[in-house]
Amino acid sequence: MKFPVTKTKIVCTLGPASQSKKVIKKLFLAGMNIARLNLAHDTLDYHRKTLHYIHEAEKELGVTIPVLMDIPGPKIRIGRIENGPITLRKGQLLKLTTKKIAGNERIIPVEYEGLVQSVKKGSLIYLYDGFIQLRVLTIIEDENEIICRVLIGGKIDSYKGLNLPKARITLEPIREQDLELLSFGLEEGVNIFGISFVEKAEDIIKVKEFARRKGKNIYTVAKIEREEAVQNIQEILSVTDAIMVARGDLGVQVSIDKIPVLQKNLIAQANKMSRPVITATQMLVSMTDNIRPTRSEVTDVANAILDGTDATMLSEETAVGKYPVEATRMMSNIAVSTEKQYRSFGSRSSLCDDLQASFRKEKPSVEDVISLHTLESSQTFRAKYVLTPTESGNTPRRISRLKPFCWILAFTNKTEVARFLTFSYGVIPFLTPRAEFERHQDTIMFLKKHGLVKKGDYIVITEGSVRKKVGGTDSLRIIQVE
């Protein structure tokens, strides 16, 4: 049995550069753990075909590849650019219109009817995550058009994002079309969804209740890309299953120089509440066109891992880039090198200290105490593995947030629990009948059968005195293999 080379999970966005069974298999072998479909682009038939390729790759490789389906939300985008990409020059005039036309260097359509009402003379407009910047000169209300001057130019193609910093956007975070896309995902068997432009807990609750009315339970990844979400992060974490630090839109919603500290704080808060966290946006973006990343990109990936992220994500690098497999392999290599140095850095120790300090202020949960003692035992005995039979996935996630140096093997009889555990750092889920792991002797036999342990190895097993009870883990056992 072969384990992944990295404990950090890698999310790859699939698109034209990777929409084939052959490339998906290569991505998995290069280090991909999770496939992401971005429903902001392409048709439902296109995504249905991509799901088919993923399932075919799973069968041929004999593996599970969880799917994260990204619901676009109210992101404002430009329309189609004829013969794109085009280059906008610094100082030139550019017209933005809500008319449904093909764009060019002089006029660009915008897919937002409230455009002219949301800006005023002198307002800044950002295109493509702020790489291109415009200033509003004239507003032509009766034509639904505005005239802008290009402050910072660059290349831009169809359907890139448009941001209106500090403007009041008259769009709900969860729209009817988003719920229709959610229904598509549910019909295709997907149950893990990225929810864009979340502002408050109610946005996540609305999505979960919609799925529940359809007889489905889903996992949500709240994408933190608005200032309101940062302000409401505690209430969002209390209802979502995971978060994504989506630095592209967040970097134009708040001052870009605040992003590094915001990232660290968001990851720390997610860790504390045992919520998996994905760090995303332009991590190796230069590999969209180049075979090697920049030094700063490599450092960015490493710093996210040292901050305590569970997963790192590739977007255009694997969706439309020239080197999707090489970008994935590079991300994996960076993670391997960084994880070797994890012992030298304090993010894990800081979280342990915070938890222990909180115990002195209020009565701790049994699960928190067990997770801390599991970490301590695994480090003291240099355990080969931590083993966690689980009904809900809560125990392995609580241990994962502490970033132990050994793998966490999570055994569950629930497919959806196993798939979502793939998002957690250092967790390898096993889907198996519960009865096979009622006794620790059976677990040892399983590990021996697959050549995962040898005589003298230590393993730490978490247990619950009440079988099949969610949240029932209340003890641990340290075993030396004979």
Keywords:
TIM Barrel, single chain, Pyruvate Kinase, Chain: A, domain 1, alpha/beta, 8-stranded parallel β-barrel, 22% strand, 6-stranded mixed beta sheet, 3 domains, M1 Pyruvate Kinase, Domain 3, 482 residues, 16 helices, 35% helix
Characterise this structure.
- This protein is of the alpha/beta class and 482 residues long.
- It folds into three domains: 9-72 and 175-341, Phosphoenolpyruvate-binding domains (TIM Barrel), CATH 3.20.20.60; 86-163, PK beta-barrel domain-like (M1 Pyruvate Kinase, Domain 3); 347-480, Pyruvate kinase, C-terminal domain (Pyruvate Kinase, Chain: A, domain 1, 3-Layer(aba) Sandwich).
- 35% of the residues lie in helices and 22% in strands.
- It contains 16 helices and 21 strands.
- It has helices at residues 21-30, 44-61, 176-187, 201-213, 227-231, 233-237, 247-253, 259-272, 295-307, 316-319, 324-339, 347-361, 366-380, 394-400, 415-421, 440-449, and strands at residues 9-13, 34-38, 67-71, 86-88, 93-97, 107-109, 124-127, 132-140, 145-152, 154-156, 162-163, 192-195, 219-224, 242-246, 277-280, 311-314, 385-389, 407-412, 427-431, 458-464, 473-480.
- The strands form four sheets. The protein has an eight-stranded parallel beta barrel, surrounded by seven helices. A six-stranded mixed beta sheet has the order 6-5-9-8-7-11, covered by helices on one side.
- Helix 1 packs parallel to helix 11.
- It is elongated and about 80 Å long.
- The protein starts with 8 loop residues before the first strand and ends with a strand.
